[in-house]
C-alpha cells in the first residue's frame, strides 16, 4: 500500500519566494552556458580567435572569402595575418592583389611598396641572400614600377627601374610627357597642358586613379572655356574622392559659366557641407546668389509691366560679371523685349545689336527683325529675318522661312494701307491690345472732336474703323497677314500681275504665312476683356459709333 506524500515540518519548508528565485537563477545560468557554448562553436567555425590562428590559417580564410567575393572579410583576414607576421612580405603582396582587384590602386601601391621594403630589409639582415629572394625583390619592384606608370607617377617609376639597372620605354615616355604637361601648366599654356595631360591619362595613367593630373587638366579646360570638359573630369575625381573640395568648387564654377545655376548651387553647397569656411565655395555661392536674385526680381517686374525696373534689375545681374556671356546674352534679349514693350525702339535695336554683333543667333536676329518692324524699318527687318534663315539649323528652317514670308508681306503692306500702323500696334499684338488702341484712337480722331480739321479726322476715323474691323476678326486678320485681299472688291480690282503672283502661291506657302497669336482669343473673349470694352461710358460710345450710324 502506497503512502501519500510526506509533509515537511514548517522548519523544513522552503519559502515560495526563495524557491522562485532559485529557479530563475538556475535558468539564467543555463542560458549563459548555452551562449558561451554557441560562441565557442562560432569561434571554432571561423578558425577561433585571431590570436589563436596562424598567419597561414588567416591567409587561407582570406582566400576562401575571396572565392565568395567577400572582399571586406578577406581584407580583414589579411590584416590579421600581417599583425601576426608583420615582417612577412607575402602578406602585404596578397593585400596588394586584393586592393588592386577592389580598384583601390592607391592602397595597392602602398602594399607593394611595403612588400619591397620588407624583402630588401630581409636581404640586408641575412647578408648574402638567396637568389630566390633577390628574384622576388626584383619581381615586386617591376610590379611597383608598372603600377606607378599606370597611376601617372612616371618619375618614380623611372627611378624604380634605375634601381634595377633597367630602362623601361613606357616609364621614360610617360615621364617626358608628364613633365611637358606640368611645364605648360605652370606657364599657363592651357591648350598645350590639356594636350599633354590627355596624352598621359589616355596612354599611360590608364587606371583612372589620378586626381592630381585630372584636377590640373580640369583647371586648364576651364581656362580655355571648355566647361563641359571641366565638368566631365571633375566628375571623375569626385567619383573616387567624394570629399575633394577643390573639385566641388571648380565643377560649380563650370556650371555657373554654362548658366546652369541650379547645378552650380548644388556643388557649392556640397563643398560647404564638407567645410563651411571654404573660401572658394563661399565666394562662388555668393556671386551666384547675387546674379540669380536680381534676375528673378527682374522677371517678376517684367510680368507686372514694370519694364524700367526690370531693365535696371537685369543690368544689375549682368554687371556682376559682364564677361559671363552664357548669362549676359539671353538676359540682354530680355532687356530688348522690355524696351520694345516701352516702345523705345531705338534703344531696343541698340541693345539687340550688341547681342547679334557678339555672336549671331536665330533668336537674336528674329528679335532684331521684330524691333525693326515695330520701328517701321521694314526693309532692315526683312534682311534680319533672311539672315536668320541663312544660319538656322535644319530643324528651324521651316519656322525661319515663315518669318521671312511674314516680313515680305509687312514690307509690301507698308507701301499700302498698313492696319497695324494705323492702330499703332505691333504685328503680334493681342486682341486686348488692339481693342484698347482702337478705343483711344477712335476717340482722338472722332470728327466731332476735330472740328478744326474735320476732313483729315474723317479720313483717319474711317481708316481706324477699317483697321479695327479687320484685325479684330480672326479670319480677316489671318488673310491680311498672309497678304491676301481682305474684301472681295479688293480681289476684283487686283491688277493682273498681282493676281498671278497671288494665285501662284502653293498651298504650303499659303499655310506658312501667318503671324503666331493666340487663336483662342478670337473664339472665346474672356469676361474681363468683354466687361472692360462694354464698360465704355455712353458719351464715348456714342462718339465712337456716331459716324457708323
Question: What can you see in these coordinates?
Answer:
By secondary structure, this protein is an all-alpha fold. 74% of the residues lie in helices and 0% in strands. It contains 30 helices and no strands. The chain has helices spanning 16-45, 55-67, 71-84, 89-101, 105-126, 131-150, 154-163, 169-186, 190-203, 211-223, 227-240, 245-257, 261-274, 279-303, 307-318, 325-341, 345-358, 362-374, 378-391, 397-414, 419-423, 431-444, 454-471, 474-481, 488-492, 496-503, 507-512, 520-523, 527-534, 538-546. Helix 6 runs antiparallel to helix 7 (154-163) and helix 17 (345-358) packs antiparallel against helix 18. It is elongated. The protein starts with 15 loop residues before the first helix and ends with a helix. The relative contact order is 0.03. Mean pLDDT is 82; it is low at 1-15, 34-48, 491-516 and 524-549.
Notable features of this structure?
549 residues; mainly alpha
Question: In a nutshell, what does this entry contain?
Answer:
With 549 residues, this protein is an all-alpha fold.
Oligomer: single chain
The whole-angstrom Rg is: 43 Å
Helix content: over 70%
Task: Give the class from helix and strand content and strand pairing.
Answer: mainly alpha
Report the uncertain regions: 1-15, 34-48, 491-516, 524-549
Query: How many strands, what sense, and barrel or not for the largest sheet?
Result: none
Strand content: under 5%
